[in-house]
Amino acid sequence: MATRANAPAGRIQLRRADALVIVDVQNDFVPGGSLAVSRGDEVVPVLNRYIEAFDAAGLPVFATCDWHPADHCSFKAQGGSWPSHCVAGTLGAAFVPALALPASAMIISKATERDRDAYSGFAGTEFEAKLRQIGALQLFVGGLATDYCVLNTVRDARALGFGVMLLTDAIRAVGLQQGDGARAEAEMVALGALPITLDRLSV
Question: What class does CATH assign to 16-202?
Answer without folding.
Answer: alpha beta
